[in-house]
């Protein structure tokens, strides 16, 4: 059995998701950043609260999995999720991940306080979406083709005005779905270069290590086995699209047969099941730790 640990990004946050997180982790966030996570609907309108909340939840999940003697063959984070993936693979410490995500979320919020975001289009090819984007993209209303979550699920990023125009064109082209996402910044586009510059300066001062397992990179979908590749992903992740579909193809090529999605979501488990029906899947959102342990041990024994 080869298990892939999946760490989702923003979008699945919800009030109460931190209720079982150990107090020392919540206290650590406050000590390191000055931010008190309040875990309610109002808090999750704020990018800093969202990002730190999801990170600390995933750090808690990593602790839980380690407590039952589990370790991954590979890790895959989506956007924000790369930082928990880097912790799980031994590249960066909990403390440094928290401090880095705090800086990341601050800079993202400062860079585009209003008028920018992301949208999702289902049912059209990436080529088809890119052709629509080219019709709308301009200096006044910038919009870019962004993440590739599956063969027919493409994300766009940029100004809300530009995104809405592309979504309208997608609907006319018979897209199954064309919607704005709950992300208040134009992530995974060239518009985020200023954030990457700050992260490069930040990570130059952090001690990092080679990954103890395979790390699947967002920026090209490839398997990374050295610290330089993971560091590049942590710095430049927001500038590049997330090639999730490629990441999952590579996972299969590596012999991965089991996926485990950490909280707070289950979207990527559904994508895995759709793409690879024979994969065994676990979502921590829906299962107790002892049940997860039972299944993983059973599958290990064959």
Structure, described:
- The chain has helices spanning about 25-35, 45-65, 80-90, 95-110, 125-135, 160-170, 195-205, 225-235, 245-255, 265-275, 290-300, and strands at about 5, 75, 115-120, 145-150, 155-160, 175-180, 215, 225, 260, 280-285.
- The mean pLDDT is about 95.
- The chain is globular and about 55 Å long.
- Helix content is about 45%, strand content about 15%.
- By secondary structure, it is of the alpha/beta class.
- Strand 7 (about 215) and strand 8 (about 225) form a beta hairpin.
- About 50% of the residues are buried.
- The chain is built from 11 helices and 10 strands.
- It folds into 2 domains: about 5-110 and about 190-300, Malonyl-Coenzyme A Acyl Carrier Protein, domain 2; about 115-180, Alpha-Beta Plaits.
- The longest helix has 21 residues, at about 45-65.
- The protein has a 6-stranded mixed beta sheet, sandwiched between helices. It has a 4-stranded antiparallel beta sheet with strand order 4-5-3-6.
Task: Give a quick set of tags describing it.
302 residues, alpha/beta, Malonyl-Coenzyme A Acyl Carrier Protein, domain 2, Alpha-Beta Plaits, 4-stranded antiparallel sheet, 11 helices, 45% helix, globular
């Amino acid at each position: 059995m080869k298990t892939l640990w999946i760490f989702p990004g923003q979008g699945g946050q919800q009030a109460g998701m931190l209720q079982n997180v150990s107090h020392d982790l919540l206290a650590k966030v406050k000590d390191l950043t000055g931010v008190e996570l309040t875990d309610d609907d109002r808090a999750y309108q704020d990018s800093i609260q969202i990002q730190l909340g999801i990170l600390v939840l995933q750090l808690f999940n990593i602790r839980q999995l380690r407590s039952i003697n589990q370790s991954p063959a590979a890790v895959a984070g989506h956007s924000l999720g790369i930082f928990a993936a880097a912790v799980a693979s031994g590249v960066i410490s909990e403390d440094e991940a928290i401090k880095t995500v705090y800086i990341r979320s601050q800079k993202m919020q400062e860079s585009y306080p209003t008028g920018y975001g992301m949208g999702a289009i289902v049912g059209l090819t990436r080529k088809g979406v890119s052709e629509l984007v080219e019709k709308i993209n301009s200096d006044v209303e910038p919009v870019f083709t962004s993440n590739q979550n599956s063969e027919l699920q493409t994300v766009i990023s940029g100004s809300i005005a530009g995104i809405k125009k592309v979504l309208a064109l997608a609907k006319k082209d018979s897209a199954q779905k064309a919607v704005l996402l709950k992300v208040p910044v134009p992530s995974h586009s060239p518009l985020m270069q200023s954030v990457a510059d700050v992260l490069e300066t930040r990570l130059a001062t952090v001690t990092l290590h080679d990954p103890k397992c395979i790390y699947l990179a967002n920026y090209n979908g490839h398997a990374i086995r050295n610290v330089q590749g993971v560091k590049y992903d942590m710095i430049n992740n927001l500038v590049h699209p997330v090639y999730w579909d490629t990441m999952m193809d590579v996972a299969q090529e590596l012999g991965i047969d089991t996926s485990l999605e950490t909280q707070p979501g289950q979207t990527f488990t559904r994508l895995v099941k759709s793409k690879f029906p024979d994969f065994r899947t676990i979502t921590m959102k829906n299962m107790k730790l002892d049940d997860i342990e039972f299944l993983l041990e059973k599958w290990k024994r064959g």
